[in-house]
Amino acid sequence: MDILRKIQDHREKEEELKWEGTFSEYLELLRERPYLAQSAHSRVYNMIKSAGVEEDHDHKKFKFFDEDIYGLDEAMEKLVEEYFHPAARRLDVRKRILLLMGPVSGGKSTLVNLLKRGLERYSHTDEGAVFAIKGCPMHEDPLHLIPQHLRKEFQDDYGIRVEGSLSPLNTMRVEKEYDGRIEDVLVERIFFSEDKRTGIGTFSPSDPKSQDIADLTGSIDFSTIAQYGSESDPRAYRFDGELNKANRGVMEFQEMLKCDEKFLWHLLSLTQEGNFKAGRFALISADELIIAHTNEAEYKSFIANKKNEALHSRMIVMPVPYNLKVSQEERIYEKMIRESDIRDVHIAPHTLKVAAMFTILTRLKESKKASIDVLKKMRLYDGEILEGFSDVDVEELKKEHSDEGMSGIDPRYVINRISSTIIKKELTSINALDVLRSLKDGLSSHASISKEDQERYLDFISLARKEYDEIAKKEVQKAFVYSYEESAVTLMDNYLDNVEAYCNKAKLRDPLTGEELNPDERLMRSIEEQIGVSENAKKAFREEILIRISAYARKGKKFDYQSHERLREAIQKKLFADLKDVVKITTSTKTPDEQQLKKINEVVATLVDEHGYNSSSANDLLKYVGSLLNR
Ligand SMILES: Nc1ncnc2c1ncn2[C@@H]1O[C@H](COP(=O)(O)OP(=O)(O)OP(=O)(O)O)[C@@H](O)[C@H]1O
Ligand SMILES: [Mg+2]
After folding, report:
1. Per-residue pLDDT at 465 exceeds 90
2. What distance in angstroms lies between residue 447's CA and the mean position of ligand 1's atoms?
3. 70, 99, 109, 414: residue to mutate for ligand 1 pocket, most atoms within 8 A of CB
4. What is the pLDDT of residues 175-191, one digit of tens each?
């Protein structure tokens, strides 16, 4: 089977990548590839950079986030340029905990996961390779083996600065296993893996009474104390806390501010001094990126507490706001649906877009500029070009409210409403109206929406609904025009007959009654007016067409609806203008006649073949548009 092959491939590749050697051999490696000794922060930064950076004007777009985080380019740029970049250069921010602050379901966990999975992959590449003292539960940096007094010399020679001291466990191992011969200490390449607890850790707070600091820093292994004779023998200690395991990589601190204080104090020393205390040992050096996340309310109550000042000053807070672009919000829903159990349900075109419009509206703050209402703002943010507004205006709009995107409806609510509607009503297909209704019905039971906001949100539902009405009408007209090829031809033939009679000062014959008729001036003008042919210019225009027809005839070519650019445009425009009535009549009659039925079936077929509907959603659309046009 394919998947088994792939698993085997993966294993073989990892086997190939393996490296083991003595510390002196490792030093040789470093001569050629000094970057192997980079810090955890630097590795994360280089990983992000290696996925590619697009620069335009004064913004950088980091492609690393592309596959999973949508619409947060600016927040990601800030995160990289204000935290990861300086941290990689060993500046002070590295010593702070990175605290992601943002509203619920705004992608904080997704972001952290992206970094974790990225690091796992990156540690399998040449640039991202990581080496550690073999057999060390904390995968300690081999360079810690270099005695403090020689580090200056080492730096002069290799250009690498060594930070942190050898852990108590490895100090003892060097003595006991290697007889003090540092150069012989075995070094191996390691691969980050959250499952194997290598270089990636996660800590989530549970009941503070039962949660033990050992979860973070490891604990005494009582079963081995007898063997080693003392609690302070590092071999009797299990270095298996999350902080130990995450060494060299990244540690996620979930819901950090919900955590008991005693846990936080450990982090203080770790981040500030780069080491933490475990059991009865000297401080243990660690090199890891600590990422925590929290929401705004929790954060505010945290900083309001004076006791937390020290901790607060050791954090870098980075906002992760909601996305504010309709098109990106749509992508978020698509992704969430792909990952859910409703992925097989037919979702009519524009359904998610309309839901996204509502959601984005709830997140936007009103502009101070009178000329910009929320709908305009929504469009401008999504990159639409509106007359009278430039990029500069958009930048200014974004600066008006610093907390925009920190509140409003979250994507999970939308997906939950969609799936509960589908499941409850056993739908096999869902459209924008179903979704808006369901979003509306859910508002009153949404825990964190105030009465005031509810009122506002109801208005947004109607706004989104109006937007949908326009979209639906256009969609149906488009499909009608498409299946109107034949009417276009008829209209054209009709026009040409009249033009011919007009130019030759002749009469036309009614095909049914045989009666003689004057050329139909009204019909001709109604077409010509579509492309601005004036009363004075009509004669010349008609003659020109007639000349063209005879030129075609001489060459034995048929003059048809496509042959004359301006005439074709005029015909199409005329059809389109007439269409409104046709659509109105065709879609709203309860008992369509044969002709109308045929037309309806053609339009349904076009919607299905060309525009992504299925027959049920296409029929619903027609019915809805019919009712709209008859209002
Ligand atoms: N900007 C975004 N880009 C891509 N996906 C997003 C975005 N915002 C939210 N999501 C999606 O919404 C869902 C919730 O996101 P996630 O769990 O990462 O949020 P969170 O901020 O950690 O929320 P919580 O505060 O509830 O823990 C996920 O399925 C995620 O993929
Ligand atoms: Mg989360």
Report:
1. yes
2. 18
3. 109
4. 999 999 999 999 999 99
d(CA 432, CA 466): 11
Residue 357, φ and ψ in degrees, nearest 5: -60, -50
Choosing from 70, 105, 338, 448 the residue with most ligand 1 atoms within 8 A of its CB, the one to mutate for a pocket test is: 105
- Using the mean position of ligand 1's atoms as its centre, give its distance from the Cα of residue 309 in Å: 29
pLDDT tens digits, 567-613:
888 887 787 777 777 777 777 677 777 877 887 888 899 999 999 99
pLDDT (tens digit per residue) in 251-272: 999 888 887 777 777 777 777 7
336-373 pLDDT, tens digit per residue, is 999 988 888 999 999 999 999 999 999 999 999 888 99
Type and span of the H or E element at 419: helix 411-424
Long-range contacts made by residues 338-346, C-beta under 8 angstroms, separation at least 24? 340/415, 340/419, 341/419, 342/418, 342/419, 342/422, 342/423, 345/422, 345/427, 345/428, 345/429, 345/430, 346/428, 346/429, 346/430, 346/614, 346/616, 346/617
Ligand 1 pocket residues where CB is under 6 Å:
68-72, 102, 104-110, 295, 323, 332, 335-336, 411-412
DSSP string covering 335-399, please? HHHHTSTTTTSEE-TTHHHHHHHHHHHHHPPPPS-TT--HHHHHHHHTT---TT--HHHHHHHHH
Residue nearest to atom 20 of ligand 1 (CA): 105
| Mean pLDDT estimate for the chain | 89
Query: Can you give the pTM of this predicted structure?
Result: 0.84
- Helix-strand-coil percent breakdown of the chain, rounded to 5? 60, 10, 30
Query: 335-359 in b/e burial notation, b at 16+ Cβ within 10 A?
Result: bbbeeeebeebebbbbbbbbbbbbb
